[in-house]
Amino acid sequence: MDLYKALQIGDWNAAKEFLNRHQHAISAKITVTEKTALHVAAEAGHVHVVEELVKQMSEENLEIKDFEGFTALARATFNGNYRMAECMLGKNENLISIPNNQGNIPVVLALFNGHLKLARDLYLLTPLEILKPENGTMGATVVCEAIYNKALDIALDLVKRCPRLVVAQGISGDSPLYALACMPDYFLSGNRLVFWKRWIYSGIHIQLGGPINDIHLNIQKLVGNRSRSNGKEIIGSVAVVVADVVEIEWV
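Structure for Ankyrin repeat-containing protein, as requested:
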């Protein structure tokens, strides 16, 4: 059995036998789209095969990209496979910062495809430095995708840590300020609520406990409380930060 077929069907014994005979194949690009064995196994969804391949690969081999600039981690993230992502990052944490050809890093791919649990974990591992607006479009892109995909806890945490991201442009050209404007359902003015919901909404007060740079959100705690919140508190805080930054920009 050839290597590609063994990986596609998840036959690790056959794949291992092939790799023992052709050791260079562990890092070779074995498809016309320049995928390695790890890419193929990740896309096929075979976690046990991915785990075995990672054991045999060097850290550098994990960074190999296919023709679209996707590492195997990016492919696993695109499909929302938490165990694969955990396995690869356990061996090479630098994978978290490697963009594809479009400039999207793993946390953005997870957000874009609606894999919010995975996105939150990837966000916590992503270095803040690469998300700062002076270092490119990655940070604004993360905030925009978080807003579009209702991962508001991520958006709030990042704009509090890097306030000027709200007026920075992401990869698509959108800014977080624009993204908020495109989501009227987040705001009372964009919804027709029954009386009791309007009454509850009017009772919500957002208090920022100190300077923006001193505030750090406990994402895990917030995620745990999502079932008890409709998100108005979170987006309200984002809006407060947006308003502050816009005022600064115009002064």
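The CA atoms of residues 111 and 119 lie 6 Å apart.
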